[in-house]
Design brief:
Helix content is 38%, strand content 14%. It is α/β, with parallel strands linked by helices and 375 residues long. The chain is globular, with a radius of gyration of 21 Å. The chain binds pyridoxal-5'-phosphate.
Length: 375
């Protein structure tokens, strides 16, 4: 057993060094929380209510929610949420609330939307229409307008991306609200899939329109991506009034059944709370600045090599024509439609990028990657 565990640990650490293709931060040190692995924590029930089960971290969970409620400009005391198993569950929850509010609603989402959204829509048995995306991954507003126009009799459930998985594109809520206004749609629900960029979007400059003060109904973010955690987790935030519609009292736990899972990870809120308390908004902002610096560096260097790399404004994801399989495998690069990406999460360093660039230089540029650049 010792040998197996040692091998496993060695392999994970070694793979970790070259992990620049998936949005998972590794600049964390949770060793101070090790003693909490000796306790069977379970955050079953609603984080805002006392239940019969006392081995929980609801207070920390509420602090995590408070932090992002502030960042997302929610009305004080009028929001609700919980720490989920990840962005997928957070999206499921937002769509579930939307369906309960508008059972006859039509879901609209761009074709660049994460696969979890289509699966969730299927699970919830909701009618939906995929909208074309633009080249950069942002939703095509003309196609959205034309499509809603044909379905004007139905409430609109709009799924907005704040950071698409492949290109970190952000859908423009202002333009979408303008479309709803033009079509005189009064019944709508707006859910933000911020699994990738939602955790830092508030510190982007210019700041995108995507929060509660901008009129959205729910926001999903992942905890293990930008914030960083040894296990997957996420956050969903919504308006309290939406949650009240679905709350149901359960005598077995003397609490309200307002979450998707019953038993819930009690360590996740503790870990997220630990990082957010240590960093605060200023620390999060600094990490974003670092990530952006790395992304700009990588973009510039790739273009100097003649590779047709690009990125969305402010994004920490750099997109380029898929390199050889050897490089994609070594650096764990996700590839879709002939394009690969590097996501400059906060742990990514010049040293790591230089090693990656050296590999890219060692392999001849293919025809599709050639481009006349003037940097
Ligand atoms: C990662 C991601 C998800 C899914 O989140 P998980 O935490 O992996 O469940 C959903 N949407 C987008 C845009 C993502 O990047």
């Amino acid at each position: 057993m010792d040998a197996m565990l040692n091998n496993l640990l060695r392999r994970l650490h070694s793979e970790s060094k070259n992990s620049i293709g998936y949005p998972v931060s590794r600049d964390f040190d949770y060793s101070a929380l090790a003693p909490f692995l000796e306790v069977a924590i379970n955050n079953i029930g609603d984080p805002f209510l006392e239940g019969t089960y006392h081995l929980e971290t609801h207070a920390m969970e509420r602090e995590v929610l408070d932090f992002y409620a502030r960042v997302f400009r929610a009305e004080p005391n009028q929001y609700w949420g919980y720490v989920t198993n990840g962005g997928s569950e957070s999206n499921l929850y937002g769509l579930y609330l939307a369906r309960e509010l508008y059972p006859k609603g039509m879901v609209y989402y761009s074709e660049s939307t994460h696969y979890s959204v289509q699966k969730n829509i299927h699970l919830l048995n909701m009618p939906s229409i995929a909208i074309r995306s633009q080249e950069n991954g942002e939703i095509d507003y003309d196609d959205l307008y034309q499509t809603i126009l044909l379905n004007r009799q139905q409430p609109v459930i709009m799924l907005i991306n704040v950071g698409t998985t492949m290109t970190e594109a952000i859908d423009d809520l202002n333009r979408i609200r303008e479309i709803l206004r033009k079509l005189a749609i009064h019944h709508f629900y707006i859910h933000v899939d911020g699994a990738l960029a939602g955790a830092y979007a508030a510190w982007l400059d210019p700041k995108p329109t995507f929060d509660f003060a901008d009129g959205v109904d729910s926001i999903a973010i992942s905890g293990h991506k930008f914030i960083g955690s040894p296990f997957p987790c996420g956050v969903v935030l919504t308006k309290k009034q939406h949650r009240d519609r679905i709350a149901r009292s359960i005598s077995y736990i003397n609490n309200l059944d307002t979450t998707i899972s019953g038993s819930r990870n009690g360590h996740a809120p503790l870990f997220l709370w630990y990082t957010l308390s240590q960093l605060g908004e200023a620390g999060m902002q600094q990490r974003l600045k670092h990530s952006q610096r790395m992304a700009t560096y990588l973009l510039t260097q790739l273009r100097l090599m003649g590779i047709q790399a690009w990125k969305n404004e402010g994004a920490i994801t750099v997109v380029f024509p898929a390199p050889s399989n050897i490089i994609r495998d070594k650096w764990q690069l996700a590839t879709d439609n002939g394009q690969s990406h590097v996501i400059c999460m906060p742990h990514v360093s010049y040293k790591q990028l230089d090693a990656f660039l050296a590999d890219m230089k060692a392999v001849p540029v293919t025809k599709s990657q050639e481009v006349a650049v003037s940097v």
